[in-house]
Amino acid sequence: MSTEFAAAEPRSRFRGYLRLGKFDVYDYYLGILIVAAAVQQSPATLVLFLLGEIAVIVAGVALDDITGYRDGSDLVNYGPDNRLRKKLRKPLVAGTLTEAEAIRFAWGAAASGAMLWAAAIVTAPHRPMWAIVLLAVVFVAALQYSYGLKLSYHGLQEAFLVVLGLTLVLAPYGLIAGEFSGFVLVQAVLFGMGPLMFGVYSNTNDVDGDRAVGRPTVAALTSERGNAAFIGALSAGEFLLGALASLTGVAPGWFVLLVLPATALRARQFHLGFARGDIMRARKLGFTVHRVYVLLVVLANLLVVAG
């Protein structure tokens, strides 16, 4: 082995672990900013919860890659015939990590996540049972999303994405505030809609690979028109949630107006994906939409706290 190769190999494996854990996709972690703006206390609990959610999500996406590699769907979706997807994002497909290395990494992250969330519960000023049960259910479901029970292979993919995002806002809020809030629930659902919208556009692009392995996403189960109608309904429902919350007093009356910039971007995303047929650019825009939503919801919480 040459000196140059020996020096490069550890760095290559390290990058492989970073890609396996999708550390560059941080959008699920932004929910902690919403909670911090709403409660403005207990920073130690917030930090422990954030570190725990990073570990749990890293474990979940690593197990998802392991299953995708085993069943061949990633070989289809990231193979040489699909030039829109970067093969290196899937280190098992690219050969930069072995399956055994990926499994050790995934379960190590899962154990770390469990300990960190337990520490967050211990340090929290409140421990409402609904928040603890919600965390426990989502922890188990995250590890079974594509591995073990394979929840996403039984028609639960889209629902899980929303519930995961919702939990990452609602559970830490409950642990710190000690109460349930309808307005925070609305924020949590809107936050969960962001990753869901990444997912449904990705599924639209990955429909052939998912159908080949029997993964029943909405895109795989319906026609192109049916899938477009589903995503259009999700986009409209996102707006209606904020509008109804404002109209009924669950949220401040100005809330629906505050989030209009994100609503406009969501409409742009749908037009780009289905009117112009550029699904991958639409998926990329979804990250911007989600981040704008987070910014506006944080602002809403700051305004409420300021009175």
UniProtKB/TrEMBL annotation:
Subcellular location(s) per record: Membrane
Membrane topology recorded in Swiss-Prot or TrEMBL: Multi-pass membrane protein
Record keywords: Membrane, Transferase, Transmembrane, Transmembrane helix
Primary location: membrane
Record field: transmembrane: 20-39, 46-63, 102-122, 129-147, 159-176, 183-201, 239-264, 285-306
This protein's record includes keyword Ribonucleoprotein: no
PANTHER family per UniProt: 1,4-DIHYDROXY-2-NAPHTHOATE OCTAPRENYLTRANSFERASE (PTHR13929), UBIA PRENYLTRANSFERASE DOMAIN-CONTAINING PROTEIN 1 (PTHR13929:SF0)
Protein name: 1,4-dihydroxy-2-naphthoate prenyltransferase
Organism from which the protein derives: Saccharopolyspora halophila
